[in-house]
Amino acid sequence: MGEQPIFTTRAHVFQIDPSTKKNWVPGSKQAVTVSYFYDSTRNSYRIISVDGSKVIINSTITPNMNFTKTSQKFGQWADSRANTVFGLGFASEQQLAKFAEKFLEVKEAAKMAREKSQEKMETSSEQSQESGRETPSGKPASSFNGTDDEKISISPENEALKSEVEQRKCELELQALRESNARLQEVLEEERISAENWRSRVTQSQEEENQLRNQISELELQCKELNLEKERNVQLTRRIQELESDLQDKQQELENLCKQAETIPQLMAECENLTAKLQAAEVKSQDLGEKLKLLQGEVDGSQHKHKNMKTELKKFMDILDGKIDELHEVRQGISKLGVDN
Question: Which has more pLDDT, 206 or 48?
């Protein structure tokens, strides 16, 4: 059957910068297909992602791998064989949760496959050892890597040489296993240190994120306060404009009153002048009345002088009429002034 896809999703692919081991380098310009593949012949699992003709991810999953969620939509895992760290950015939390759940499932399956493989190796090793022990020793000779015509008799020296070769071979294999185990331990230690570094970075990022959230909350409060201040400023500006308009009206009224106040002394002076003229006219009128009485007596006393006195009296009456008209005009002026005031 070969390799078959068992789970597929879409995500933005990233790899850790090999020089800094801190920054993420995007593997694709847009979201690409990321799939889990199962190889039935090798009983192994891989994560594969291809962008066009470029292979972005080719990571074989081992039981030692861990998928870590670093944010609500981002996760990562370290691949010691590829000597890198892969990161995936998803469009939603649900997609990230499904991918992480599948990663854990595949990891457990790989672990079980490794355990079964080890059991088979141990079983075959035990069977080979038992078959070696069950070989009949009473026979004088046995065939070894040959046909019946090419039988080689196994002597005690050959048996000891064969045992020494097998022992040497086992020692070499054991030494190779030890070296491989040491390399794996080094890789695991590096992965542990890397994971601790990532945890510290994640903690630091979370703290920075909390600080940024607090700053955003403070800025939002400040924005609300600024909006309230702007509304207050708009209201105050309108109130100031209204007060300035009222002030201009009051200033106009004050200017009019000042102009009217400037005319009051003049009117008072005219009133005093008219009063003086009225008093003078009244005094003159009294004098003329007395003269009129005297003249009337003279008319009664002397008829001879009647015509002359009549002429003089007529002149006097004309003068008196003029004065009375003047007095009447003065009274009308005073009455008018009183009405205006």
Answer: 48
In angstroms, the CA 209 to CA 289 distance is: 115
Q: Write the CB contacts of 17 (distance below 8 Å, at least 6 apart in sequence).
A: 23, 24, 25
- Tell me the CA distances in angstroms from 191 to 81, 83, 247, 340, one per residue in order: 11, 10, 80, 108
pLDDT tens profile 259-280 = 887 887 888 888 888 888 988 8
- Asked whether 10 and 34 are in contact (CB, 8 A), the reply is yes
pLDDT for 253 equals 87
Structure tokens at 115: 């355990």
CA–CA gap between residue 30 and residue 32 (Å, rounded): 6
- CA nearest neighbour of 102 among 77, 84, 124, 121: 77
**Angle at alpha carbon of residue 124, lines to 120 and 129, rounded to 5°:** 150
Mean local confidence (pLDDT), 222-240: 86
Cβ(5)–Cβ(36) under 8 Å?
A: yes
CA 172, chain centre distance (Å): 64
The pTM for the full model equals 0.38
